[in-house]
Hints:
Layout: E1 5-11, H1 16-30, E2 36-40, E3 43-50, E4 53-60, E5 65-70, H2 74-81, E6 86-89, H3 101-106, E7 124-127, E8 136-143, E9 148-155, E10 158-165, E11 169-171
Antiparallel strand pairs: 1-5, 1-6, 2-5, 3-4, 7-8, 7-11, 8-9, 9-10
Amino acid sequence: xxEAKWYVAHTYSGYENKVKADIEKTIENRHLEDQILEVSVPxxxxxxxxxxxxKTSSKKMFPGYVLINMVMNDDTWYVVRNTxxxxxxxxxxxxxxxxxxxxxxxxxxxxxxxxxxxVEVGDYVRVVSGAWEGTEGSVxxxxxxxQTVTMDVxxxxxxxxxxxxxxxxxxx
Length: 172
């Protein structure tokens, strides 16, 4: 499998959040979680002064664009390109060009640091931080691309699968 990179999709103005939601829904429906890792509409806070009052609001950094961290292949290209509201990828012709590490850092995105764990499917782990702190269970799946494990936790007497970050678990 090739490495995931950040790509930029051009959208109709004002459709950025709708496109993000539609792509995330398609990822879930087609089980592409390991190929399309993140969909982002970068926002920044803007302080405006009107009538002597300071007002802070969030505005889109790049109106008309959605950033997507994905492994580029025919399936992922098709999913993004054929999402309602997407007019195409940024790049010459129909060939998307990934953002460079320098461009990503300039936008304020954190580069994914690789975390390796000594946990395998079936191992018993304890959650050491986050919302599920103190919960114990066995690992059902490991997703190295998203740096998460899937484990079952007990909610109201029922086993429910949750994703927990590598850094939030400890092998028992």
